[in-house]
Automatic annotation (TrEMBL):
This is Membrane protein YczE. It comes from Candidatus Fimimorpha faecalis. It holds the Pfam family DUF6198. InterPro entries: YczE/YyaS-like. Keywords: Membrane, Transmembrane, Transmembrane helix. It comes from the Bacteria.
Length: 213
């Protein structure tokens, strides 16, 4: 019972970190993470709110996950797919609309660093507790499973992230939106570092924390 309680709070902490990370990426204007890049590009093209479009995409991916890796679905999956987009929207609304802040270069760099660390640490938290992960975070493990380990998690995550960035950039260009608000050095760093960073945090932080008495 005690360990289940720890798993539950680690799951919530992971999702909270990811939510803050997505907001920080957007506030940095150095480019968002790969999945957010795709969803911002498409939602901008369609004229939908980011939160609504991300929820729709998560539902579509969740259907695929249900038929391929059902073990990846749980309470954490539902909380993540509903909460992250709207919390990120709320954070940006507070900073941009209510506080009317225009972050300077130093603050934007800080937002970028926080976004990168929080996003990968957050995923590492809720992956290890095995209470379900976000639909998109199931994609790399599914690829690893289908290729029987020939394409390991880290490389599969890099590949899917790059594809998401390409899609996001394409829709952003079609819609004539400001490309650099969703893709930039932050997007590139995220696409190549997310897989390795998640693996690092799993081995050195979240798994030891979960197994600690």
């Amino acid at each position: 019972m005690k360990k289940n309680g720890k798993r539950f709070w680690m799951m919530l902490l992971g999702i909270a970190l990811i939510s803050v990370a997505v907001g920080c990426y957007r506030l940095s204007e150095f480019g968002v993470d790969a999945f957010t890049c795709m969803n911002l590009g498409i939602s901008g093209f369609l004229g939908m709110s980011f939160g609504n479009w991300q929820l729709f995409v998560n539902i579509v991916i969740l259907i695929v996950v249900f038929f391929t890796m059902r073990s990846g679905i749980g309470l954490g999956t539902i909380v993540n797919m509903v909460a992250v987009g709207y919390i990120a929207d709320f954070i940006c609304w507070i900073v941009w609309d209510q506080l009317a802040m225009t972050p300077g270069l130093l603050l934007r760099i800080i937002f970028l660093i926080i976004g990168t660390l929080f996003a990968t640490l957050g995923v590492a938290f809720y992956i290890v507790v095995d209470m379900g992960i976000a639909p998109y975070d199931n994609v790399a493990p599914i690829i690893e499973k289908l290729t029987r380990g020939k394409l390991p998690f880290a490389k599969a995550r890099v590949a899917t992230d790059i594809i998401c960035v390409i899609i996001g950039v394409g829709f952003c260009l079609i819609a004539n939106d400001d490309l650099w608000k969703i893709v930039g050095i932050g997007t590139i760093l995220n696409a190549f570092l997310t897989g390795p960073f998640i693996q690092f945090f799993r081995v050195h932080i979240t798994e030891p924390l979960l197994n600690k008495d």
